[in-house]
Prior knowledge:
By secondary structure, the protein is an alpha+beta fold. It has helices spanning 19-28, 109-118, 120-146, 148-164, 180-187, 191-203, 219-225, and strands spanning 30-34, 39-41, 49-63, 69-75, 80-81, 95-108, 165-168, 171-174, 207-210, 213-216. It is 39% helix and 26% strand. Mean pLDDT is 88; it is low at 1-5. This is Crp/Fnr family transcriptional regulator.
Amino acid sequence: MSESVNTTMPRGNTSCFSEQNFNRLLVTMKDKSYPEGTHLFWEGDLSDKLFYIKRGRVKLTKSTDEGKELILYMYGRGDMVGQADPFFSMKHSFTAEVIEDSEVGVIEQKDLEIMICQHCDFSIDFMKWMGIHHRLTQTKFRDLMMYGKPGALTSTLIRLSNTYGEPYGDSILINKKITHTDLSNMIGATRESVNRMLSDLRKKDALEYVNGMIVIKDLVMLQDMCHCELCPNEICRI
């Protein structure tokens, strides 16, 4: 089978793979459609697959015993999702819910193991991908635990701007409608407290709303509030 990569495919968090190794993923995966509201996997399911999003969006959530949902990650076109460990049978720690009709490439663990065993350069790229996920998780929990809810909120806004941001004059438009409930679920706060914090940021002229979407007017102020470490965009994303 030819190993010429399909350059039209999005890369997302798989940009750490070389073109040759990315193409090995593409020819291995089996395409499947997931309608909005369905799930790639549930918390507690066996973690034996990876999912590459060719179209659509998926959110990863963690639920408490009381039923409260914490949104940990938002994935889109070009991202690979999953916790597949090629050497140990594990269960998913999160639930992956499809929030837009999606086309997904499914990679079975047995096929992943074959690629790792046969191609040492692929195994190195796969370790890089796992390392990015570990760093993303570490920085996410740093935001949630070290600088309070205002720090967690401003960090989340910065991550949203890196993921969905577009130039808007001298500002940054987050080109996705994100509700206050979404933001509260992303930082583990109540909707009312998020409303207050956003109102304070608007009074300080750090952000505004345009057609229901958030516009960041003073990125430096947000960075100061969350003690931003200026992580690269593949880490500082939602």
